[in-house]
Design goal:
- There is one protein chain.
- This protein is 30% helix and 21% strand.
- It is an alpha/beta fold.
- Helix 1 packs across helix 4.
- InterPro entries: CMP-NeuNAc_synthase, Cytidylyl_trans, Nucleotide-diphossugar_trans, PseF.
């Protein structure tokens, strides 16, 4: 059995009610639910939330809300892994024969069903605990710098001040779309960024964190552009 878990708490501060706010004609969370449905992989698509309105919207888009997330797992400081671990424990308490669990973020309108399928293939390609989406940085991070309090700048890696960009190591970052994992990995709290995790690379132009209003506007324009190109 394969199960999708979409963690969607109700207390978003920077974009109030972000998970159910209208995004290009649908509640934001609906895009993740639809991608999970289109993948054809899941026996259950569960939304983990403490919020009654989010739960109602999730059910309207044919996701399941079989339990209410405990409030101590719905604050600003709770990470993703404990939330998914709670869901896995609930599934196993029901006697579900769960083989793999995919955490899909609720504010990820650029998720593709084929990527979800490719992620599962990677997870099952070896002795992996997790498989998740990554992309490359648009500029070399080893040439990055910060602004000093007095106004000047300082490189984080001054030893690379004269290194050619093509000679620098490639750096990747979390694309924040979905995370496949074994039930044991989720329940034991294994770290995600470790040698037991295999990355699925997706193009940079399909990646956009949505944490503030500027991100929301950028994501809206990008989504509409991609939809226009698709059409």
């Amino acid at each position: 059995m394969k199960v999708a878990v979409i963690p969607a708490r109700g207390g978003s501060k920077r974009i109030p009610r972000k998970n159910i706010k209208d995004f290009c004609g649908r509640p934001m969370i609906a895009w993740s639910i639809i991608a999970a449905q289109k993948s054809g992989l899941f026996d259950h698509i569960i939304v983990s939330t403490e919020d009654a309105e989010i739960a109602q919207v999730a059910r309207e888009w044919r996701a399941e809300t079989p339990f209410t997330r405990p409030t101590d797992l719905a604050d600003d400081h709770t990470g993703t892994t404990p939330v998914v671990a709670h869901a896995v424990e609930w599934m196993q308490d029901q006697g579900w024969p769960v083989e793999a669990v995919c955490c899909l973020y609720p504010a990820s309108p650029f998720i593709h069903a084929e990527d979800i399928r490719a992620g599962l293939d990677l997870l099952q390609s070896g002795d992996w605990a997790y498989a998740f989406t990554v992309t490359d940085f648009p500029a070399p991070i080893f040439r990055s710098f910060r602004q000093l309090p007095e106004g000047g700048v300082e490189m984080f890696f001054p030893e690379h001040a004269l290194t050619r960009s093509q000679d620098l190591p490639e750096a990747l970052h979390d694309a924040a779309q979905f995370y496949w994992g074994t039930p044991e990995a989720w329940r034991s709290g294994k770290p995600m960024f470790a040698p037991h995790t295999i990355p699925l690379r997706i193009p940079r132009w399909r990646v956009q964190d949505i944490d503030n209003e500027d991100d929301w506007v950028r994501a809206t324009h990008l989504f509409r552009l991609l939809e226009l190109h698709k059409g």
